[in-house]
Every structure is written in structure tokens, then in C-alpha cells.
What does this fold into?
Amino acid sequence: MSPDRPPVGALFRRFRERLAAEGPQRLDGPTPHPPRDAEPVRRRGRRGRRGGGEQVNVPPAEFTSYYGRPVLKAPVWKWDIAAYLFTGGLAAGSSLLAAGGQLTGRPALRRAGRVTSLAAVTASAYFLVNDLGRPSRFHHMLRVAKLTSPMSVGTWILTVFGPAAGVAAIAEAAPWLPERGPLGLGRRLLPPAGHAAGLVAAVTAPALATYTGVLLADTAVPSWHEAYPELPVIFAGSALASGAGVGLLAAPTAQAGPARRFAVAGAALELWGSHRVEHRLGLLSEPYTTGAAGRLLRAGRALTVAGLAGALVGRRSRALSALSGGALLAAALCTRFGIFHGGVASAKDPRYTVVPQRERANRRRSEQD
It folds into this structure.
């Protein structure tokens, strides 16, 4: 040890004396101050002999994260995925409507359902591929079949449903073909092939209508994940209501009986599910009642009620039936977009991720105690 350097014990004694003289302040910089946008801390002392200590009002907690980034990464999906949800449900509901017309001898209802189903599933495939970026990505998803993956199951559902809906719709063109020659053979073979394909599409339609609800609930988005029992029900009701809207718009009132029954069943499921997600989820119901999602779901509810009332009242009015069908289609569109926007909003706000996690942790702790 150098003779001009004090011993280590003396250095520690000087450090303690300096720390005691300066008080509990930081030696590496100035004392930190609260952020400018935080409310000032108000201290109110208690007067009287009993008073000892201070009461401090702490500003409300702000749910932020490092570098201002959200706790949960919001979905990168755009409006085309919301449109995909709607067109997929429309295709499923229309194919069920076509099967009902086929089995009950209502050709106008069958024709409208088959044509709409093909148009809707084509649009649905376009929106999905547009979101994926390259058509080859859809093809690559067919390399595996994973029952635990809603995306994989949905890809195979679309693969089965699409060609069946296409054959059923093409069969509607059989009466336009000539009776003789090679096209005459197609005129005779297309109707039975269309009947079989229409039934295949109808069998896979419930899975097509509901798998998107399972897909959303399988994500980490708080308001989607917590609504896992209701989303498939809402999407099934929306699909039935949209199919009913097609029948009420395109078929004569004498053939629109199955469409009216679809309207009753679809409206009941859709209204029940929407009410549940807006009231059962606690804090996570808030994204469905505020902002764009709240406006869309309220509009969907009002249009569903109006469409159902018109379908029941306008049994003999072609104009009223058409207006009811348009209202049901608009209601299904608003409901799908409202559910989509509600989930995206819940992922962007850290409060919807942090608060439910704390509540679950507190419940587990109380159960263990």
C-alpha cells in the first residue's frame, strides 16, 4: 500500500459521514422528478394531537411499457380479413339456403343460394390470398393437416367447400345448354352432379361459418380469446342471417319460407352472442361497446331486429321482404366488422392485457390460501 494513500477503513468511514451529512440523495445525479403529464402529488397533514404522518394521494396508474410499445402486438390484419370473415359466412349461409330450396322443391331459392355461395367463396378466397401476399402460401398450407390448428382446418374446409359450391352453381346453367350433341350430355349430367355437390357444400357449411370464430379465439388478443364460447355462435348466427337475406332478396315470397326460418334462427343466435360479449367479459367487454366496434355492433343489432321484423311481417309483400333481406345482410356485415375492430382495439391498449392477468393471479393466490 502506498504511504500517501489512506487505509480502506478510513475511506469507508468518510463515505458514511458524507452520506449521513447529505441525507438520502442520489450521488450519481440529481433527484428524479415525476413526468410533466402526471398529476401533482397532494399531501394533506392531519391536524391535532392524534395526527402523525401524512396522507399521500397517488396519481392513477398508467399502463405503459418499455419504449412506449404495447404489451401485446396488435394483429397486422387489415380490413380484408374482416371482409373475409363476412364473405365466408355469406357463402356458408347461402349454401345452406340452397340446400333447403333443393330439398323442398323451391328452384328460385336454390338458384339464388348456389350462385351467391360461389360468388361469396370466390371473394373470400381473394381476400384471404390478398392478406397472405402470395397465392402460393395458401397452397403451402395444404401440405399438412393439423387438427389442433384452426388455420389448417379452415384451409381444408375451404378446399372442400369451394369446388362443391362451384359445381352446384355451374349446374344451374344446365337448362341453357342444347339438348343434343356433346353439350347435351352436360345438360343431362349437370343437374344430378349439382344436387350432390350442393349437399356436400351444405354439409361443410357449418364448419366454414364457425371456424373463423374459433380462429380468432385461438389468438392472444384479449377480447377475442376471452369470448371463445360466443364467437362461433355469433358467426353461425351471422351466416344464417346473411343467407336469409339472400333468400328474401332474390326469391319470390311464395318460396321464401326457409329464408324466414333462417332469419329467426340466425337473429336469435347473433343477438344472444352479441349481448354476451358485451356484458359477460367484464373489462374485456369494453372494446365491444366503445369506439368503432361499439357503433358497428349497435348498428348490427338494430338492423337485425328490423330485418327480422320485416321478414315476419312482410310475408306477402315482395318489397318489404327485399328490404328485410338487405337489412339482414347489412347487419351481418356490421357484426363481423364490429367483432374484428373490438379485438384489435383490445390488443392495442395494455390495460386489457395487464388487468385480467392480475385478476387471474389474485384468484389463484386466493384459492391457494
